[in-house]
Amino acid sequence: MTDFNFAPELEKFFKNTAYGTPDNITRDGCIVLALLDNRLCVQNNIENGTLWNYWRHKYPVTENGNNYSNFKNYEAEKHGYINFSHFDFDEYVDFSGATFAERASFSRATFTKLADFNGVTFTKLADFSGATFAEMADFSGATFAEMADFSGATFAERTNFSRATFTKQADFSGAKFAEMADFHRAAFIEWAIFSDVTFTKLADFSGATFAEMADFSSATFAEMADFSSATFAEITDFSGAEFKKRLCLNHCTFKKLPPCLFDATLCEDFTALNCNFKAIPADDTAKRAYGKIKEHYAKIKNTQGELEFAVYELEQERLLEKRQPNRFFFNLYKHTAHYGQSILRPLCYYLLSFVLFKAIILMCVADIIHFDTAINWHTALDVCKIIFDGFMPSVTSKPLELGSIVMNGQAEFWFNILHAIQKFFSIVGWFLIALAMKNLFKIRSGG
């Protein structure tokens, strides 16, 4: 604290009736008083905000709401640059619609009541590092053209950044959100840093867009963390984060890598269903990330999630596989059965192969059949044996006994080869169908 006497300066200031009175200041009075504070504090080498805080504590807001801090539609280019660092706003403060053409400095400022920054445009650095918001902070629809620094800030009530646009780096590292943190449909064009942040209540990032890295490493989510339908274009880092109650990643789009959850503490109520990972290239980190989520789903007995991420993990194994024989079987497993998730695919492939092989066999047999008597019911029965044998899988490889159809040695050899191949396809087809039915039954029965 300083021994500087602010009383004469305030008395002189309020002689201008355009600024109102000490207990009923006007909007222009707020702007000019803040400018005066900056000038006097620099001249007297005292902490910024000392004059403002002296007036604010001496003349608080009246019961009828007069004397609040009104900076509505403030424009730095028009009114002059104001440094708000260390300012105490002991009442509702209105910056809605304001434009900060220069740096916006609110570091270590205190907002005791509602802080309204709705629709504000920050052209340069917006510095709220170490600021305290005792009641609601409304930054909905705000535009941050340069870096937004909220590192170490404290939000004691609901915080609204919905539909805000962060064009450059957004730094919330070490911030504390005691109530709901609303970032619904916010757009982060560059790095979004939420490392070591504490979310005590709902953290709503649903529909948000992260064009570069999203860093939530070592963050704490005490209640629900909702990232549903969010888009992550680069790395999403949840390493070391703690999710205590619920984490929702449903319908998210991950364009480069799946979320990094290494060393993260996951809650039982965790869902990441119907996510879009289609554009993710081959990457061992991606494979391990899928495996981490799959194992967690298995642990909490969420079969649908476990099977979904087993598919993603197998797809990464297929992409990473260098040996051609193994790659071939991975491709076969993927396209014929969608890694054991599809019933229709193996059924269609099986019926197609069955019809194709039987057609080939019958064409071969038609050229070499010799009838010892006229066509009779014995011949028709043997043709039916040829057609329907192998429709259901059999563990035996006993050759067909055809009494009325006589083949020479070479024809019989190729007939048996085709017959054996078709039986192999039959066994594989029914196995894949049974596997898919088992997985479907597990999902519907809840594991």
Strand content: 15-25%
Number of strands: 35
Distance between the termini: 67 Å
Radius of gyration: 36 Å
Mean pLDDT: 81
Largest sheet, spatial ordering of strands = 3-5-9-13-17-21-25-29-33-35
Q: Please give the domain count.
A: 2
Shape: rod-shaped
Low-confidence stretches: 370-381, 390-408
Our count of helices gives 10
Task: Kindly describe this structure.
The protein is an alpha/beta fold and 447 residues long. It has two domains: 72-333; 344-444, no CATH class. Helices cover 35% and strands 16% of the residues. It contains ten helices and 35 strands. The protein has a ten-stranded parallel sheet with strand order 3-5-9-13-17-21-25-29-33-35. Strand 1 and strand 2 form a beta hairpin. Helix 5 runs antiparallel to helix 6, helix 6 (303-320) runs antiparallel to helix 7 and helix 8 (344-368) packs antiparallel against helix 10. It is rod-shaped. Residues 370-381 and 390-408 have low confidence and may be disordered.
Write out key terms for the chains shown.
447 residues, alpha/beta, eight-stranded parallel beta sheet, 10 helices, rod-shaped, 2 domains, ten-stranded parallel beta sheet, 16% strand
SSE layout:
Layout: H1 7-13, E1 20-21, E2 24-25, H2 27-43, H3 50-58, E3 69-70, H4 76-79, E4 88-89, E5 93-94, E6 99-100, E7 104-105, E8 110-111, E9 115-116, E10 121-122, E11 126-127, E12 132-133, E13 137-138, E14 143-144, E15 148-149, E16 154-155, E17 159-160, E18 165-166, E19 170-171, E20 176-177, E21 181-182, E22 187-188, E23 192-193, E24 198-199, E25 203-204, E26 209-210, E27 214-215, E28 220-221, E29 224-226, E30 231-232, E31 236-237, E32 242-243, E33 246-248, E34 253-254, E35 269-271, H5 284-299, H6 303-320, H7 324-337, H8 344-368, H9 377-388, H10 409-444
Parallel strand pairs: 3-5, 4-8, 5-9, 6-10, 7-11, 8-12, 9-13, 10-14, 11-15, 12-16, 13-17, 14-18, 15-19, 16-20, 17-21, 18-22, 19-23, 20-24, 21-25, 22-26, 23-27, 24-28, 25-29, 26-30, 27-31, 28-32, 29-33, 30-34, 33-35
Antiparallel strand pairs: 1-2
Helix pairs in contact: 5-6, 6-7, 8-10
